[in-house]
Amino acid sequence: MYKLHAFAQSGNCYKVALALDVLGQPWEPVFIDFFGGQIRSVQYRESVNELGEAPVLDDGVLRLTQSGVILTHLAHQHGRFGGGAEAQQREVLRWLLYDNHKFTSYFATYRFMYSLADAAPVPAVMDFLHARFSTAFAVVDKHLQHSAFIVGDAPTIADFSMCGYLFYPVEESGVDVRPKYPAIGRWLQRIQALPGWRGPYECLPGERIAPRPRS
Amino acid sequence: MYKLHAFAQSGNCYKVALALDVLGQPWEPVFIDFFGGQIRSVQYRESVNELGEAPVLDDGVLRLTQSGVILTHLAHQHGRFGGGAEAQQREVLRWLLYDNHKFTSYFATYRFMYSLADAAPVPAVMDFLHARFSTAFAVVDKHLQHSAFIVGDAPTIADFSMCGYLFYPVEESGVDVRPKYPAIGRWLQRIQALPGWRGPYECLPGERIAPRPRS
Fold first, then answer.
1. How far apart are CA B215 and CA B105, in angstroms?
2. How many whole angstroms separate alpha carbon A33 and alpha carbon A213?
3. What CATH number is associated with residue B154?
4. Are residues A68 and A105 in the same domain?
5. How far apart are CA B69 and CA B3, in angstroms?
6. Which of A69, A101, A139 comes nearest B93 by C-beta?
């Protein structure tokens, strides 16, 4: 059985949990105490993941890190959600890279600073990140106006990767994505309708984030 | 013959140019007038790349975008630099994703704001990006203390991706990477020694960036 080292507040962890659920694979979460400093520890970096990142997936044989690598591995292993022909597989990779580079990355960092970081957000940095993820969201919204899923008319791991941070409560980021980007909203509904779908706080250990007091 | 739509100031373009050179493949650059607004144009987004990114590679049959996708395609096509066994291929993908997420991304944005953007850099944003790429540089420097190349003892496309922004003149970013991260410095020397290596301004069209006047 798969063991997924993860915590619910991480959309990168949730991406993999969602893939396992939609694949119908039994799996077991192993809680990573991110807020207790587990990922920053020397032990974690030396013996689990030198990149200091979650999630980590044990499949009984391999221990894998980086959500995009894990998703690619799961797609190969089960022959599902990897894209059919070679051209589609390249598209899946292209969107996985775009997600890591510009879509998840800026939004996840924004949300982290908005509600999770110890320090209060720095307005200039928040403005910078907001402008960056807004550009990426507009690109993706435009793309989804003509495509049911990220690559063609069936879900792939590119969808699981890109939706990862968009199923969290609005108050965790202060950004209500669905009304502003309606094609993204409809796409999230399609993902949510996939058999096996659960939200991050339903499938992974960890508490919903209490809103930071705001002046 | 390959046609690479690119411009010299873009490390993402240079990553692919370098791979073609080290593969010993003949190729021809097609200048993208980034600073004249070509990539921001509707025409470019609608008919070349909806993500609004460079480079683009035409190989006679396919038109490919996103440096990581192009590098992966070239590695498959020529059976070189993709990593040998499956475990190595996964490592290559892991570092390509890490590069897009945290290594190139933060440093390239920092350099862009330092010397290329129209607007003067915002100190808080520069501090944020500096902290982020410094963390990533430290991770990679540590990794390279025990490894000649990013994945094992031979170069792969992960190296070509990650080194892309590190062969530009120091004054373009104000960051002298080599003395601060000696293992990265030695790795860059190893890459520079590969047959076929050329610097970005030697292989791609585009002028070296004039330093921004500083107070």
1. 27
2. 23
3. 1.20.1050.10
4. no
5. 16
6. A69
Contacts B105 to A, Cβ<8 Å? 101-102, 105
Contact A31, A86 (CB under 8 A): no
Strands A27-31 and B2-6: unpaired
Residue ranges in chain A whose pLDDT is less than 70: 214-215
Characterize the bridge pairing of strands A56-58 and A63-65.
antiparallel
Helix (H/G/I), strand (E/B), else coil: A194? coil
Digitized pLDDT (tens) for each residue of chain B, 215 residues in all: 999 999 999 999 999 999 999 999 999 999 999 888 888 888 888 888 888 889 999 999 999 999 999 999 999 999 999 998 999 999 999 999 999 999 999 999 999 999 988 899 999 999 999 999 999 999 999 999 999 999 999 999 999 999 999 999 999 999 999 999 999 999 999 999 999 999 999 999 998 888 777 65
Q: Which domain holds residue A119?
A: 86-192
Residues B97 and B187 in one domain: yes
Please indicate, yes or no, if residue A29 is contained in any of the structural domains: yes
Chain B interface, Cβ < 8 Å to A = 50-52, 62, 64-66, 68-69, 72-73, 87, 90, 93-94, 96-98, 100-102, 105, 122-125, 128, 139, 142-143
Please give the torsion angle defined by the CA atoms of residues B14, B16, B20 and B23, in that order, rounded to the nearest 10 degrees. 110
CA-closest candidate to residue B22, choices B92, B57, B60, B74:
B74
* ipTM of the shown complex: 0.94
DSSP H helical ranges for A118-156: 123-144
- Whether residue B139 and residue A98 make contact (CB cut-off 8 A), yes or no, is no
Q: Which helix (H) or strand (E) holds B65?
A: strand B63-65
* Inter-chain touch B142–A97, beta carbons under 8 Å: no
This prediction's pTM: 0.95
Query: What total number of domains does chain A contain?
Result: 2
